Amino acid sequence: MKIKFIGIFLLIVNIVITASIFAATNLRLNPGLNYNSDSNDGPLITGDNMSDARIKGDRPYYIIFYDRECYNSKRQAKRTVELYQKFKDNVGFIIMDVDEIKNADQVKLRNRFYRNYIPHVTIIDREGKVLYDRSGEVGVDLISTYLESSITVN
After folding, report:
1. What is the fold, at CATH topology level, of the domain defined by 23-152?
2. Domain coordinates of the chain in residue numbers?
3. Where residue 13 falls among pLDDT bands split at 50, 70, 90?
């Protein structure tokens, strides 16, 4: 009986932890990217929960829309992984390849923010207010400023 209880408890804990993930995790840059070409080098960023695109109000979110055949997107992907390493404990990261939209949550975000120019970065604070929403490359320092201010707001 005790073993059954422990098994059921662990199953419930696993479900709760899995259900609470609302963003991509374990982000890594594709090591084969050619930054001088619009070649298709595969996904720019890989990781776990890559299709998750639900916004949950407990944290700010960084959203990137990219195309794998765009050298500007490749450079922004590198910055995105750098930002992820710095902010992963406090910010949700949503990564979207515009040619591979996978679910209704991604469609909603694409329709709300994406304007057919890549790369496109959107930052949303924990109250849902849009802090940054622009196309084109953007530096780590500027994005860090937005993310830091959204983390420290009570």
Report:
1. Glutaredoxin (3.40.30)
2. 23-152
3. very low
